[in-house]
Amino acid sequence: MSLRPATPADDVAGVIRAAFGDEGDQVAAIWADLEREGLVLGSIVAEVDGAVVGHVGLSPAWLDARRELVDVWLLSPLSVLPDHQIGGLGTRLVGAAIEAAVAGGAPMLFVEGSPAYYRSRGFEPARRLGLLQPTDRVPGPAFQVARLDGYQSWMTGRLVYRDVWWRHDAAGLRDPLLAELEEEYE
To answer: Structure pTM?
Structure first.
């Protein structure tokens, strides 16, 4: 397996669709809009035997800190074809995303995702650091951050997503799934 920057010839949308199942079309549309609007900070693919089997995307957001607006990065989406989801490919993609965010000078990398998955891969609960999710529809335990080299303790406040996430109504979750996750984790 190898990791490399995505190229226009890669079927990233196909990987996203397959990885996200019923929500695949929506997630692929969000990624397409991020690309179209020039909001992609990183797009990394995983190849096995010459075939693209995984992808991780990085895009910008802001942290509305009291002192100033801080440019931060988002990790989303993380996609691995279903028949390659066991064996560490996703972990390698997350590691590459963190490395890219460090190289890009981001002080923090945010993700909405499973605490069981991301906490062992460099992320921690964001609320513990005084960071607020962009909407109450993001379950607290799912709102996570990786503190990077440029992080400073004054960087607290609300994460602000770019408009594309709101246009797709893709910030957080809607009921009944939101209520189920809140009950499970909180």
So the answer is: 0.93
